[in-house]
Amino acid sequence: MSPSWSDEVASALAPAPGGRTLLLTLGSGLRADDGVGPYLSSLVKFTRGDLRLIDAGTTPENVAQTAIDWKPAKIILVDAAHFGGYAGELRVIALEDINKHTFISTHNFPLSVTFSVVKEDTGAELAVVGVQAVSLDHAEGLSPEVKASAEELAAYFNSL
Fold it and tell me: Does 3.40.50.1450 match the CATH number of domain 7-23+39-137+147-158?
């Protein structure tokens, strides 16, 4: 794990001990740093059967049932966020605060509702990790800071 990650972030990113862990990424590659999720998803290659990756893009409600059916013990959600941190900073976001900090305008349905249902139906621990965005302009490509954070995340997940 990166030495720059807080203990809270490190704990959120850790797989479930003895259970399945689902990494769910969100975002649009057409909205600058909102593409952090799809970019991360393109880099992560899990080799263990107890780890699964789903890139939900801008419609996480469309993969909710797939997540429920897989019965994970933990769900790690990674999305671009705005919480006033430094560019590329990772921070854990409480489920009840997710609509305030993530860029829900790029998602079709409130994330808090979607993931409340998934959490309730699976009993899974839910960890929401936001990556502080620099820009959400209609443009392709990540800022250097967000790209570096995504690559750090991918290296960590690929080491599992």
Answer: yes
